[in-house]
Write a structure and sequence with these properties.
Length: 371
């Protein structure tokens, strides 16, 4: 089977593409970018009010916590239930502990609150992040308790997501009356939405959290993409919201620290506990800073992954015959599983997705620096 997969690899790499090498490249790249942006903006590299310091501190703390928490998850037998209809290579991952979000998400949030002196905006986005993490924990716990792929019902999950989104929107409305309902667009354009802004805000939080959740399916994928996206968003809002820059850098660093345990071959998965939280964090910061167009581009990979699922389901239903069986547009959705079934190695999927997301973030940084 392994030889068959290797023969179908669609491209070659100039060096051995392992989980360890990808992690080292990502960590080095994010560190260099953070230092460069801090220097360019005149921020002190030894100051908490920077990108580099929160990034490194949270990476070290989350990584250290992993060495304590992962063995506990193993002892609790919090092993991931693997889908039998998924890529066959994933079956060997059965039993790998999940719910890794229980240590890296709170670590990033706690340090962000401390470094920002409990700034009200940071408290609000931290609350959203933890709330969505709680939803994910409920789902993960039910999956483990039932020893199946079914957690809490989709209706309950969606209701909780909408409920927490509504609470955040109410906070925005009453505690931050200066929030603009005009959506900022590139090149100085503005889209006035008025009251329509609020349903859009709720949709952003729910959609972003589900998108990051769908993207989490390959060793190291969502953790690395989350680190890239959050650092990029933090850099984009640094000049107007330095406290939220710190928050983004902290969660980015905690993702990087988690990656020391989640890189291929993974010792732990983040589960919904982590994946839903990352989407909530990204959406909340973007709404609070009127950066929705930036979020859309930075979340390009998450958007494509979500579209692949929607297209797969839609095509299957549209082509359903009298026997009740339809055709599949992809070998499997989301897209990363389709690529695996086409012969890509997990590390190839992760490497290409990292590179794509990095390019999107660099494009955003160039656009925002010229605006």
């Amino acid at each position: 089977m392994d030889n068959f997969v290797d023969e179908r690899i669609p491209f070659s790499m100039p060096f051995k593409l392992t989980g360890r090498n990808l992690f080292l490249l990502l960590g080095l790249g994010l560190g260099i970018v953070a230092i460069g942006l801090d220097v360019a903006a005149g921020r002190l590299l030894n100051s908490p009010a920077s990108l580099f310091v929160p990034l490194v501190v949270c990476a070290l703390v989350a990584s250290g916590l992993g060495y304590l928490v992962v063995p506990v998850l193993q002892q609790l037998k919090a092993g991931q239930i693997i889908r039998e209809d998924g890529p066959q290579a994933h079956l060997k991952k059965a039993g790998t502990p999940t719910m890794g979000g229980v240590f890296f998400v709170p670590a990033g949030v706690a340090i962000a609150l401390l470094l920002s002196n409990f700034n009200s905006d940071v408290v609000a986005v931290s609350a959203v992040t933890l709330a969505y993490s709680f939803i994910g924990w409920l789902d993960d716990w039910q999956i483990l308790r039932r020893k199946s792929n079914k957690g809490i019902s989709p209706r309950i999950k969606l209701a909780l997501q909408i409920g927490f989104a509504a609470l955040f929107c109410l906070w925005l409305m009453f505690h931050n009356p200066a929030i603009s309902t005009n959506i900022a667009l590139p090149f100085g354009w503005v889209l006035p939405l008025g009251l329509l802004f609020w349903p859009l805000a709720g949709f952003v939080l729910v959609a972003e959290s589900n998108a990051t959740n769908l993207t989490d399916g390959v060793d190291g994928l969502m953790a690395g993409l989350g680190a890239i996206a959050l650092l990029g968003l933090g850099a984009s809002v640094a000049s107007t919201s330095p406290e939220l820059m710190i928050f983004c850098a902290c969660i980015s660093g905690s993702c990087l620290g988690f990656l020391t345990h989640n890189r291929n071959p993974a010792r732990v998965f983040m589960g919904d506990t982590g994946a839903l939280a990352l989407g909530g964090a990204l959406g909340a910061v973007a709404l609070l800073t009127n950066s929705l167009w930036i979020l859309l581009i930075i979340s390009g990979i998450f958007f494509i992954e979500t579209l692949s699922v929607i297209a797969q389901v839609g095509y299957y239903k549209a082509t359903k015959g009298p026997d009740g069986i339809g055709k599949r547009l992809l070998k499997m959705a989301p897209l990363h599983h389709h690529l695996e079934l086409c012969g890509w190695l997990e590390t190839q999927v992760v490497g290409i997705f990292y590179l794509t997301n990095g390019v999107l973030v660099l494009m955003i940084l160039m656009l925002t620096s010229n605006s």
